[in-house]
Every structure is written in structure tokens, then in C-alpha cells.
Amino acid sequence: MYDKTITMSYDVVIIGSGLGGLVAGAKLAKEGRKVLIIEQHTSIGGYATCFTQNNFTIDVGFHSVDGLYLDDPKIKVFEDLDVYFNLEFVTLPLELYRYVNNRIDISIPNTKEGAIEVLTEHFPKEKHGIIEFFRTIENIFSSEWKNKTAGEMLDSMIKDNDLKLALVGIIQYYGDDPYYLSALSFSAALARNFKGGNHYIKGGSVKLTDYLANYIREHEGKILLGQEVTKILIDPEKEIVEGVEYRSTNDINEEQTTASAKSVIVNAPLPVAAKLLSSESKNAVQLQEMMKHLKIGHSALNIYFGFETTLDNLNHKSYLTVVNHKSVYSLKDIFENNNMRYSQKNFIFVDYGQTDTGMAPFGKSTGVISTVDYLHNWDNLSDEEYSAKKKEIEKIFIEKLDLLIPGVWDHIEYISVATPKTLERYTKNPKGSVIGFTRNPLQVRMYPLTSPIKNLHFTSAWSVPGGGFTSIIDASWRVAVSVLKRRR
Ligand SMILES: Cc1cc2nc3c(=O)[nH]c(=O)nc-3n(C[C@H](O)[C@H](O)[C@H](O)COP(=O)(O)OP(=O)(O)OC[C@H]3O[C@@H](n4cnc5c(N)ncnc54)[C@H](O)[C@@H]3O)c2cc1C
């Protein structure tokens, strides 16, 4: 047991064991730094984790990862940390996603050339716009659209509303409104999908986070679970970080322990971490002020399924299906739809059984429905009201899924609902945000968000430009490298 009365000293303390904390921790431990990761939850990984129920392994916040092409920034990280020798990546089917509404049903391939061909077949009059769209997203960093919204960009190139809707099909991974989402964020992420296709980690995201945690421990690093950082210590004169204070997450009366450190890396959500900074530091106060003015992104409602069959037996062939409600006619309807009744909401359905993900017993499969949601839809409910609402929504979405895959209702062996409240409770991400701060053109310009306090570093979905596995893995490795450049 760790002696609570002693102040321990480390080269680096990392607050949070989300993907960002673990990647940075693994690199630093590999290079011989004395690393301590403090995680408030009883398990590692943040959103990058799985749970097991009825022999089904369910991924909480991971549907697929883009890239793995030659100059994909993840490659150097995976090679450096021996990830490839220890984890198996499954390449997903050639379809990036299937887009369905009551007017069209299109399977969009995961290559630029394939997507242009299929979309042009469906929308021959839009051929030039389609080509321009793909050219722009590939070159977005030098494009005139980089400071505009995705909606503005699409309106300038494409006329057909259904085509625009199909092109922003997977918008919920980046934002909840095409006229608010930065064209830069949207395009950079989408272009990566078309460049390298999509992949899944066999066994789920937990395989990656477990691997990184073991790697850290094997390199003499330490990970404390169920311990919440309550204060980030700063020398206010020198504006330099000195360490952290933490205590048991479940026992607020427990004495605080101090861990001193030459560097502190914040993987916990930035709005949470900013509040842990001492108000004696002028820079900390400025950062706290800034956080108050940044807009927090949307959350998600997730319905996790275990099926007693694989869904190809029900003639379902897509890994990722985007289903838009018939009332969504144009891009401007998307934000409205996100605020509609659940029975009318757009959603994504991921059928993990379409490939060998290793998540379910033989002959069975897992899946998830995910839709944009907001914490305010779930706040201020009594326990009974909350459970009843979850039950009601479970039924609504089973009905919606049964329309997509007739007969699926009879094959559900396990089902559970995770609300924005669930996401916030487990990971402390404010409002259960799945993307950190919103990625509107104004906010995107501030990325990567760096710390104004010496030797304090940020790495999480809240501080990196892109969000999602690719951006976080790349940014966290870079943060570790910049910490290593300091003299020991
Ligand atoms: C439903 C869903 C689906 C997604 N699908 C995909 C996908 O298909 N592909 C993709 O690339 N990305 C996807 N994402 C996004 C991806 O999962 C996240 O961007 C990524 O996992 C976030 O990692 P992070 O390092 O920012 O930390 P987080 O996962 O937010 O972890 C932060 C950690 O900090 C800890 N913490 C907080 N406060 C404290 C404290 N005071 N003291 C100690 N610890 C603290 C938390 O407990 C948590 O473990 C999805 C997300 C969700 C929610």
C-alpha cells in the first residue's frame, strides 16, 4: 500500500488515464522517466474502455479508427511503443458508411475514387461539386474554407440536399450542427477516413489501453486507480508547476497526499483541471477565465446491444449505418433534429459483427446505437424518472432498429443505455461531452491548447485540434517528447 503520509516525488505526474494520459505515460516511462498516473475511476481508459456483460464485450466509446496509411502520425507512435507486435488491427469492410433516409440509401466506399464514383452515379448532375468536395477536404489546410463552417463549404459546392446530408453523414463524431462545425475539423477527419479506410482493434479499445497501462508498469511507472486529483500545485512567484494533491475518489474526508513532480500532464478534461489550479497563480486565473467562455461540445446517447446471432443472418451488411429521420431535408435540419423527440432522432448504428472484432461468443454479435444528446435532457430527474426514461428510450430505439433490420427485435440478448449523465459520471467530462470543446471555426483556431504555466502540459480531446483516437495519440506522444526535451 502507498504510504499516505509521505510526499513522493516523480519526474512526471499525469492526471487521468484516458488514451492521452496512457500514450504520454508510456513514452515517458519508456525513456526512463519516473511516471505516476492518477485516475479517479476504478478502471483505466476513460472513454477508451470496454465492459463485459453476458459474455458480450462492449466498447464504450470506440467504433473505429481512421488512417493506418503510410504517413499516418499514429504509425510512428505504435512502432515506438511496440503496439503492432502486441495488438491486432482489423481492417473494416470497404464501405465507410451506409447513409439511409426515406429518399436514398447509399453505400459510401472508403476510398476517394470509390466514393466519387458511387456518389456521381447517384447524383450525376453534381459530378463537379463532388470532385471539388473531395479535392477541398484533402487540401483543407490551404483552402479558403478552412475558417468557415462545414455547412458553408458544402453549400458552395453542392446543390442537392440529400447529397449534402449523405456527405455529412458521420457529423456526430465531430459536431452537432454543420453550420457551427469548422470545415477544417470536419474535412481533416473525413479526409483521413478516405485515405486509409477504417480499422478496429481486435478485442476492443480496452486492448490498447490495457496494453499501454502494462507497458507503463513494466517500465517502472505507477498507475493509481480510484484516486482523484484535487489540486494542481503551482509556485505562484515563478508560475511553475510543482506537483499535485490527490485523495480517494470515494472518500472526500481522506487525507490528501502530495506528489511532487518536475512536470504535470493534464489528461483530465480541461474545464475540470482548470478548477484545480491555485488561484494564487495569475496565469491560472487567466486560464480559468478563458475556460468559462469556451463552448462545450455535445454528448451522446448510446444503446449497447448483444445479439444472439450475427446480423448478416438478418440480411444486414453494413458495419456503420447512418439513419436520418424523414423530417431532415437539408443541413439546417440537423441541429434541429438533435433537439427533437427521441423517436425522430437521427442515429448511427455500428454492427461490430460485420468483421472479426472478437467481442462476442461464436455466432453472436454486438452493436451500438449512438445519437447526439445533451446532459440537460437527463438532469434534474429523480432516480425513478431517470430509469423510466431510459426504459422508454430503449424501446423507441429498438423500434427504430427493427425498421432498419427487420426482425432484429427478436434477437436481442443484452441491452443497456448510457446517457450523457453516464458519460459524465464515469469520465468527469463536463456535460458528458464526447468531443471536448465545440469545434467551431473560432475555437478551432486556438488549438492545440497549451498551458500558460511552466512544465504544465495538456493532452486530451479538450486540447487537441481533431479529437478522436488519431489526434489524441499523436498529440500525446508529442507532449511526451516535449517533456523529454527538458533537462533532467
Ligand atoms: C460514444 C463515443 C464514441 C466514440 N467513437 C470514437 C471512434 O469511433 N473513433 C475515435 O477515434 N474516437 C471515438 N470517440 C472519442 C474517443 O473515445 C475520445 O476522444 C478519447 O477516448 C478521449 O481520450 P482522452 O485522452 O481525451 O481522455 P478521456 O477518455 O476523457 O479520459 C480522461 C480521464 O481523466 C480522468 N479524470 C478526470 N478528472 C480526474 C481527476 N480530477 N483526477 C484523476 N483523473 C481524472 C477520467 O476518469 C478519465 O479516465 C468516441 C467517444 C464516445 C464517447
Overview of the structural elements:
With 488 residues, the protein is α/β, with parallel strands linked by helices. The chain folds into three domains: 8-86 and 203-295 and 440-484, FAD/NAD(P)-binding domain (3-Layer(bba) Sandwich); 111-196, Guanine Nucleotide Dissociation Inhibitor, domain 1 (Orthogonal Bundle), CATH 1.10.405; 299-373 and 379-418, no CATH class. Helix content is 34%, strand content 22%. The chain has 16 helices and 19 strands. The chain has helices at 19-30, 73-80, 83-86, 112-122, 127-138, 150-157, 161-167, 183-196, 205-218, 270-275, 282-293, 332-338, 383-404, 420-427, 441-444, 468-484, and strands spanning 8-15, 35-38, 50-53, 56-59, 65-66, 89-91, 95-100, 105-109, 198-201, 222-224, 227-235, 240-248, 257-266, 299-307, 320-323, 347-351, 365-373, 412-418, 456-458. The strands form four sheets. Strands 1, 2, 10, 11, 12, 13 and 19 form a seven-stranded mixed beta sheet that branches. Strands 8-7-15-16-17-14-18 form a seven-stranded mixed beta sheet. The chain has a three-stranded antiparallel beta sheet with strand order 5-9-6. Helix 1 (19-30) links the parallel strand 1 and strand 2 (35-38). It starts with 7 loop residues before the first strand and ends with a helix. The structure holds flavin-adenine dinucleotide. Flavin-adenine dinucleotide (FAD) binds next to helix 1, strand 11, strand 14, helix 14 and helix 16.
